[in-house]
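Before we proceed, please read the two lines closing this message. Tell me what the token row says about the fold.
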Amino acid sequence: MTKYSENEIVTGCVTGIEKYGIFVGLDEYYSGLIHISEISDDFVKNINSYVRVGETIKAKVLSIDEESYHLKLSIKNINYKVVKKKRLKIIETPSGFKPLKNRLNGWINDKYKEIMKKNEKKD
């Protein structure tokens, strides 16, 4: 029994591109091929304009060959792009950590006084 099923949407990594289709690695055992006719309903002049090697994509399973662990896949009519969360870049201020350094001793003293008051109340 296979871990994938027909019509399932799977996620894989583009491992190769040929003029006839896209090779996709799904896991350590299974791989798949997206034939050029399963990329778009429109004429596909250049597959590289759809995906790149190393890109993570989603694809629909059309059929499975249990003996070879090979899947026929399609990206027609599905949103095949996997959106990666962008990391926000923090913009450094010219002053850097100077305000923190200047206020740190004051914060420590305030906390120390607060602790000392609590200890006096307990006695």
In short: Residues 9-74 form a domain with the OB fold (Dihydrolipoamide Acetyltransferase, E2P) fold (CATH 2.40.50.140).
